[in-house]
Amino acid sequence: QVQLVESGGGLVQAGGSLRLSCAASGRTFSSYGMGWFRQAPGKEREFVAAISRSGVSIVYADSVKGRFTISRDNAKNTVYLQMSSLKSEDTAVYYCAADNDILLHTTEYKYAYWGQGTQVTVSS
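The structure assignment produced for this chain is given below.
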């Protein structure tokens, strides 16, 4: 089992940047694929990005490709989401999630463990 805690959210102007962090408990962080999801008010939670156990494989949602970068540091049990060129439509609660499957997944039901979320608000 793994516990996840997100941080780094906040208020930023359109065009700005933020870096989200997700710290994981436990000694087996490197055995989990990690994903970021987001949920805007009145909308369903959607996939943002995912990274494999080793960090070699990465996938992004089309809406963030070229603007967001997911990375991980297994020595620090942390996954990051660097967000640049932020838009008002990026406003949402951002969640990190862990999945112990070897395959990368973009659907939330594949992820067993979730953080509590961190709010990102982009002002236009």
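Interim note for the steering committee: The mean pLDDT is 96. The two ends are 40 Å apart (CA to CA).
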